[in-house]
């Protein structure tokens, strides 16, 4: 989602501006606002399963355009199709 190759490079040029964790009995997610050399990013990290993603403003806006049905479909197979 709107990531450039430099976003996943070594984080030497990244400044954490804000960080918080959301936890319930099923999941734990760390959310951080980052300032990179390519602009601000929102990083969502699920450390327990080892997945993370960084969004820029356009990527987040694109998520907001999705219907409830589309997002629900993503959650049915969060790690991709079986097989």
Average of pLDDT: 84
Helix-strand sequence? EEEEHH
Strand content: 35-45%
Major sheet: 4 strands, antiparallel
Structural domains: how many: 1
Q: Given the structure, what is the number of helices?
A: 2
Radius of gyration: 14 Å
Q: Give the low-pLDDT segments.
A: 1-8
Specify the helix fraction band: 10-25%
Overall 3D shape: globular
What distance separates the N and C termini?
Answer: 24 Å
Query: How many strands in all?
Result: 4
Sheet with the most strands: spatial strand order: 1-2-3-4
Helix/strand-derived category reads alpha+beta
What features would you describe in this structure?
The longest helix has 9 residues, at 68-76. The protein has 83 residues and is an alpha+beta fold. The chain has one domain (5-76). Strand 3 and strand 4 (51-55) form a beta hairpin. The protein is globular. The model is unreliable at 1-8 (pLDDT under 50). Helix content is 20%, strand content 37%. It has a four-stranded antiparallel β-sheet.
Secondary structure elements and their pairing?
Layout: E1 15-23, E2 28-36, E3 39-46, E4 51-55, H1 57-64, H2 68-76
Antiparallel strand pairs: 1-2, 2-3, 3-4
């Amino acid at each position: 989602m709107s990531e450039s190759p430099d976003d996943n490079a070594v984080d030497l040029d990244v400044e954490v501006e804000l960080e918080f964790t959301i936890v319930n009995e099923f999941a734990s997610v760390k959310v951080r606002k980052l300032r990179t050399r390519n602009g601000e990013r929102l990083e969502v990290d699920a450390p327990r399963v080892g997945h993370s993603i960084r969004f820029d403003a356009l990527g987040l806006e694109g998520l907001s355009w999705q219907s409830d049905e589309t997002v629900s479909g993503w959650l049915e197979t969060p790690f991709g199709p079986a097989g």
